[in-house]
Request: fold
Amino acid sequence: MTTEKRYRAGVIGAGAIAQTCHMPGYDALDNVEFAAFADPAEARHKEITDRYPNTRGYTDYKEMLSEEALDAVSVCSPNVFHAEQAIAAFEAGCHVLCEKPMAVTLEEADAMLAASAKANRNLMIAFTNRLTGGPLACKQLLQDNCIGKPFMIRVRFAHGGPSPGWAKSHWFYNPELSAGGALFDMGIHAIDLCNWLIGPIHSVSALTATLIKDIEVEDNALMQLEFKDKKALGYIEVGWTSRPGFVGFEIYGPEGSIICDYDRGLTLCSGTVTAGQDGEPEWTTLDRNPTKGGWDVQITHWIDVIEGREKLTMDGQAGRAALEAALAAYESSKTGQRITLA
Reply:
């Protein structure tokens, strides 16, 4: 039996992530009506309304917010528009799910947080890895102290880039729209994982570079992290130029290791292994498909947050913390200095 629809949802920005995750996610839920979307590229509208015939398209998001009585809005536009559009949605009384990075400056992030508080509406940032099976299991392993207090994390997120092949346009490669490259696109996910699993981050050293693609933003980046308790370090590698290779993360503790290979599975190494000493390792494969979940469950989780069935953890403060570290990485690459976070 289906339940009566209670939430009217809209999407701002009708690109790849909106069409892959947000729109079908809203449409699949019995208690949600995917009511409207806004995108200035009118040529996209027919494709979407053919797929969702009861959904109205707008070229101006402000008109959509004015004309539609929406309860929830996903902000899926290019990065530089996130703050102004999220704030407008809050002013219209909506809960906001914002794609990452939540903004391109800390001032914008703070304005979003203030608007969320003033409207008494939820702000969730789309840190989808937190809803994926492997990272969720890893979080539990750490809470259960399976490897002792972790002292090192390594994250590698890399692929061939958003376009050609996935993105609906080349805005990712336009610094006036993206404000950054692979670091803002993929590194922000990696930073959030480090904050969530080990953090908070204390200082950042980084290098960004455009190595292969003929674009105006970085296609590769490296980050070194020091965490606030000074007892753990981290390493992040992200890129838009990779052939197949390791994608995922590794966490090392004094009593074992966790390896979450997104292609091969989640593995726990324990036994008599201890840091700096020989031992007899015991390898246990915990999940052969650690990427299940993610986009497939994100909108359900989001509505559950709005209804109070799920705790909001991917909140604006988490988004701001990840943004602060990313901006510090850009500053570090520019100056050659290690940057300490506030």
